[in-house]
Amino acid sequence: MHLSIYLPVAGSSVSMLLLLGLGGLVGLLSGLFGVGGGFLMTPLLIMIGIPPTVAAASDSNQIVAASSSGTYAHARAGSVDFKMGLLLLVGGIAGGSVGVVLIKLLRALGSADFVITVTYVVMLGGIGAYMFVESLRSMRVARHVREEEPRPSIYARLVSRLPWKVRFDRSRVELSVLMPLLLGFLVGTLAAVMGVGGGFIMVPVMVYLLRMPMHVVVGTSLFQILFTCVNVTVLQATLNRTVDFVLALFLLLGSVVGAQIGAQLSKRLKADQLKILMAVIVLVVTAKMFMGLLLTPDFLLSYAGGH
Amino acid sequence: MRPARWVLVPALAATAAFVLPQADGPAAPDVTVEPARVEMTMFYSGTGVHVRARVPAGAQVAVLLAGRERDLDLKRKGKVFGIIWMNVADVHFEAVPNLYLLRTTCTLAQLARPEVLERLGLGLDALGSRSARALADPSLFRELARLEWRDGLWDVTEAAVTLGAPRDDGTTLAEADFLLPARTPPGEYRVRVYTFAGGEAELAGEAGLRVEQAGVAALISDLAQRHGLLYGILAVVAAGAAGLLTGVVFGLGSKKGH
């Protein structure tokens, strides 16, 4: 029975069902939380024997499908803030370019791997732990009494003093345009350093720093991820020749369906439930990564390209 | 215009002398590889290769299926601050074959002395003495071998060449089976048959094996390698279209929900 498919760019053969399943799982997360899922998919692909560079590039390709499917579903439901998304995107592209230069500089200094690994664990662990604690707290406190919670007033005051305020109707917030631009820049830089799309950093940034409602966060994040991944896929295909479309195709067949189911589910779940679920997933990935750093590896040598 | 017969006949004779074995020389090297050409199509997941060779009766045999040699740069993991495992250094190996599958009739130690095996490049010790000679820590070659072994690209199996009954002409048929893994890089490979008798080693014959991508797999690979920008745009358009299409289909299905 021929259930394996040959991947011409990766140069290996993988079970079709496994790829469809992986795509479905990550697509579900994508539709549910508004993340691309690269932080989960790329390590999984490496685990099943795909070369790291091909895994990352092909994953970007499949995220284009999952995020366009998810963006469409959320746009129909009116939960995409295009204005906010575009500003974050502009900041993100500028930040991504700075991040690429930064990582080149670090590689020249010989400390890139260390910085990437530490950034990964600190960002994932920090975000996961914060989301988890915050969601638990707000679930315990009576609903819709957020005003009573102690908020970082210095941050709020600082934000309110910034110029060029604009009303973001979909997000129901009034903010300086500098906020999404700067935060987009920051996330873009971190994402480029870590070699990921940055959805799992962007979502908490939108929730906690831009104070956007959770259902708009998911749609807007997917909209932004869509354009980031289009850019990354074309660049990887042109410069590194590492996009395996056959791999991406099987992943995306699973992920577009998963993304739709995720988008439907996200409407049924409460914001705090969504946040705590994502926090748990992020924390599990962090724990797995942390254990990988502490335990003696199976192989003391690895092919260049992954981190 | 037809060439004159007086030109054609000597030319054919010269070609035949070059290609065909000498009638009065030693037995012709008779190595056959089946299949001699492997096509990697979309459903390729590795394939078996059968090698047959006529060898002198009574000799021990080694059959080597190997690919081109290239330098290889890998990352070595080490402990940082005594706790965290991560990539700490680059490791450079020389002349590493991209595929190395060896089958023998007996153990390598029974086959020949280590220096003979090293000269012929037979066995992992022989490979290591070449590939890791510039390394400060030659034991890292064992790690490389484990990595290649895991991917099925290197394999040494002793007592895996079967010998048939001796024939009247003093030869016998040696046969070996190989499994080409799915990760075999496309390219030209050589199958070499060595015989060992009285401490002496001899290359009994060799044959080629061609592994190439075919059909849609070749088309995609070619587009990706030669027209990266076009390939990237097509990949993005196809992915975006698939995503939107699914969105529309699911949207129609859940129209009542909104």
Structural description of this entry:
The complex is a heterodimer of chains A (307) and B (258). Chain A has 307 residues and is mainly alpha-helical. Chain A is built from 11 helices and 5 strands; from the N terminus they run ββααααααββαααααβ. Chain A has one domain (14-143, 153-305). A two-stranded antiparallel ribbon of chain A has the order 1-2. A two-stranded antiparallel ribbon of chain A has the order 3-4. In chain A, a hairpin with a 4-residue loop joins β1 and β2 (12-15). The longest helix of chain A has 29 residues, at 112-140. The mean pLDDT of chain A is 83. With 258 residues, chain B is of the alpha+beta class. Chain B is 32% helix and 38% strand. The interface between A and B is large, with 63 and 62 residues.
Major sheet description of chain A = 2 strands, antiparallel
Mean pLDDT across every amino acid position of chain B: 85
Low-confidence stretches of chain A are none
Mean pLDDT of chain A: 83
- Total number of beta strands of chain B: 12
Number of strands of chain A: 5
Report the C-alpha radius of gyration of chain B, rounded.
26 Å
- Relative strand content of chain B: 35-45%
Global Rg of chain A: 19 Å
Q: In DSSP terms, counting alpha (H) and pi (I) runs of 4 or more, how many helices of chain A?
A: 11
Largest sheet of chain B, described in full? 6 strands, mixed
Q: Name the structural class of chain A.
A: mainly alpha
- End-to-end gap of chain A: 35 Å
Distance between the termini of chain B: 80 Å
The shape of chain A, in one word, is: globular
In helices, the fraction of residues of chain A equals over 70%
Chain pair with largest interface: A-B, 63 and 62 residues
Oligomer: heterodimer
Structural class of chain B: alpha+beta
Order of helices and strands of chain B: HEEEEEEEHHHHEEEEEHH
